[in-house]
Amino acid sequence: MNSSPKWLTYAFCTLFCWGIFGFLSKLGSNKLSPVQMQIFFTVGLLIMTIPALFRSGISASSDKLGLLYGTFTGLFSVIANLAVFAALKEGQASVVQPATGLYPLVTVILAVIILKERMNVIQLAGVILALIALWILSL
Amino acid sequence: MATWLFYALIAVLLYGIVGLFQKMATNRISARASVVCCAVGYSLPVPYLLATSGPLTSNFLYVMIAFFVGITSQLGSWFLFASLENGAKASVAVTLTALYPLLTVLLATTLLSERLTALQWFGVFLALVAGAMISYEKPEGTFVKG
Fold first, then answer.
1. Residue B145's pLDDT is what?
2. pLDDT score at A3
3. Whether residues A34 and A8 fall in one domain
4. Residue B31 pLDDT
5. Is residue A93 part of a domain?
């Protein structure tokens, strides 16, 4: 009998972790301010980053621009997280999380404009669907 | 506009920008190196946040909840990397994991007794489908949650 491929198990573990992440974000945001949420969140995130420190391959010769872009992902994520925690304080997790999960909408559009990437047909249909979804959720 | 929606739209915009920076970073450095840099980016504003947060809560339960939000966020990213390293096609793994809000919806409606109108359920359904469709990419580019 064939067992599930390892990659599928890992993918479901991701889905599970991030689903719990969304749920716990709501639980915490009910009582803590967005800033406090972000502070304790960062502690947890840093602990989980330790294993990567030893295998990151970062050295003096690493691409400086790549390192800078990587740092920007963290900086922008902080502000985005604060917005999510604030949204969760006001709204239901069952609506806020699906709405904020639409962020690739912005990435694909920016990637087309800035990186001159091409959007495939499925992505284009997804963008239209995402805009409709956001409109419906805003009603 | 509802307050929650205003903040949610800001988050969508900023996470979207994060996704772009992830693409630009991983075009130049390894995924692991980009995760470490991302953690550095997360750490930089902490002194400012500490200075502006007021007294930190002493409620151990909620401190642990917020702490586990960070743990599960990063752990999920590691599992996604592990999935990709174990032969997953990015077009499948990233699309599949983009459905994570589904679990949040299930937990929130069952454990927190959140109630949605029929129209909101339809919006949630469309959002989940749309998120998966937008995340469908060829293997050279991936969206990893910020």
1. 62
2. 63
3. yes
4. 85
5. no
Q: Which of A56, A71, A83 sits opposite B32 (nearest CB)?
A: A56
CA-to-CA distance for B6 and A89, rounded, in angstroms? 12
* Same domain, residue pair A83 and A119: no
Contacts of A10 in chain B (CB under 8 A): 79-80, 82-83, 86, 88, 93
B34-61, pLDDT tens digit by residue?
999 999 999 999 999 999 988 888 789 9
A69 domain-assigned: yes
CB distance A36 to B66 below 8 Å = yes
A90-135 pLDDT, tens per residue? Answer: 999 999 999 999 998 898 899 899 988 888 899 899 999 999 999 9
Nearest CA in chain B to A31: B62
pLDDT tens readout for residues B120-134:
999 999 999 998 888
**CA distance linking residue B22 with residue B16, whole number of Å:** 10
Contacts of A63 in chain B (CB under 8 A): 28-29
Residue B133: in which H helix or E strand, if any? helix B118-134
Report if residue A131 sits inside a domain: yes
Q: Do A83 and A109 have their domain in common?
A: no
Give the ipTM of the model, two decimals please. 0.90
Containing domain of residue A26, as a range? 1-88
- For residue A97, being part of any structural domain is answered with no
Cβ–Cβ of B4/A37 closer than 8 Å?
no
Closest partner residue to A76 (CB to CB) among B17, B72, B109 is: B17
Burial category of B53 from C-beta neighbours within 10 Å (exposed 0-12, middle 13-18, buried 19 and up): middle
CA distance A125 to A119: 10
